[in-house]
Amino acid sequence: MSESSSHTPAGRPRIRRALLALLLLALALGVFFSMRPGSGQRKESSAPAFKPLVTAVKAQQRDVDIYLPALGTVTPLNTVTVQSRVDGQLMEVRFREGDMVAEGDVLAVIDPRPFQAQLEQAEGQMQRDKALLENAKLDLKRYAQLMPDDLIAKQQYDTQTALVRQYEGIVKSDQGAIEAAKLQLIYSRITAPISGKAGLRLVDAGNIVRASDQNGIVVLTQLQPISVIFPLPEDSIARVLEKMQGGAALKTEIYNREQTRLLATGKLTSLDNQIDPTTGTLRLKAELTNDDIRLFPNQFVNVRLLIDVVPGAVVVPAAGVRRGPQGAQSYVLRDDDTVDLRKVDTGESIRDEVIIRSGVQAGERVVVEGSERLRNGVQVEVKEADSPDSPQPQKK
């Protein structure tokens, strides 16, 4: 069998010579290019360095109110279903739906004629029984004069005495019947038991109403003052109790559902007596004057309970604090507009602001917008948040 010449002893020198020639050619080309003018100089870019645009806000120092937030339900202090206490025909309805009524105002009138007739009948019965009583007393007086001379039997005198007492009891019973008839007559005029807002009318004039009716005539709801019931986590109860036991009247602010408008202010009045085991919360009640009647029963509201005041606290917008595996950090601007990434110790959050315990001083500028493009030491272009043409930081 024949073999290729490249594998023969005579072919190996030719392969070595070819490899050596290629190596020399590569070295020559390297020397040629290294000797070209400017080959050892680094070409610099003529374009200016990019500066990220950020928005910054100065850290403020001021007294900060600490609130406990909650979701609450407006609850009236009193709600009354006005019902008739007598049976009869409803003659008049004297309230308008939605009106504010005062305690004692006449709301409706039931036909009073049957009750007036009962009163007159009771008064006539009493007049008759009083005449019988007077006559029995005169006979008793005569018998008393005849007793010393034994002109009448003592039994007759005793019987007359008992008759007088009997008529006195009848007259007293008649007086009770008169008072009952007068009361029925009073009940024919249905009055407001509390001051409040009248709801929708539940019965129209001309209908027969009875004391046993369940629906009643109208529902009155007290709106001034009014209360809000809201739950707080059991971990917050100790702070509330400490303040209340110290005699503090804890201010309560009520906001609408979007937390954009203050509806009313009041104070905390009471706490429930047990924690709900399913939610781990305790119900609290605040009372509010509700002067402009912005709160209605069963309305859902946002509650803020003022629990403390931190004097001289350093605060920054919540957008100026980054939270990650290394904890809370903030980008702080130096005088040359370079950023310094600092670790900060944060306190309570107040809506869109955060209290800074350490890491940022009052007056220092904190980046609140554009931090996602930054790294420590980068120089930036700054727009102050309070300038008219600056983009405002978004509220979290």
Please characterize this protein's 3D structure:
The chain has 396 residues and is of the alpha+beta class. It has helices at residues 12-34, 113-146, 154-187, 234-245; strands at residues 53-58, 60-76, 79-82, 88-93, 100-101, 106-110, 189-191, 196-198, 208-209, 218-221, 226-233, 251-255, 262-271, 281-288, 300-317, 322-324, 327-333, 339-343, 345-350, 353-358, 365-369, 381-384. It has a 6-stranded antiparallel beta barrel. The protein is rod-shaped and about 180 Å long. The two termini are 87 Å apart. 20% of the residues are buried. The model is unreliable at 1-7, 38-47 and 387-396 (pLDDT under 50).
List the helices and strands and how they pair.
Blueprint: H1 12-34, E1 53-58, E2 60-76, E3 79-82, E4 88-93, E5 100-101, E6 106-110, H2 113-146, H3 154-187, E7 189-191, E8 196-198, E9 208-209, E10 218-221, E11 226-233, H4 234-245, E12 251-255, E13 262-271, E14 281-288, E15 300-317, E16 322-324, E17 327-333, E18 339-343, E19 345-350, E20 353-358, E21 365-369, E22 381-384
Parallel strand pairs: 1-22
Antiparallel strand pairs: 1-21, 2-11, 2-15, 3-10, 4-6, 4-9, 5-8, 6-7, 8-10, 11-14, 12-13, 12-15, 13-14, 15-20, 16-17, 17-18, 19-20
Structural class, please? alpha+beta
Largest sheet report = 6 strands, antiparallel, barrel
The percent range for helix content is: 25-40%
Q: Helical element count? A: 4
Write the element-wise H/E pattern from the N-terminal end onward.
HEEEEEEHHEEEEEHEEEEEEEEEEE
* Poorly predicted residue ranges: 1-7, 38-47, 387-396
- What is the mean pLDDT? 86
Record field, number of beta strands: 22
Q: Classify the beta-strand content into a percent band.
A: 25-35%
Strands in their spatial order, largest beta sheet: 2-11-14-13-12-15
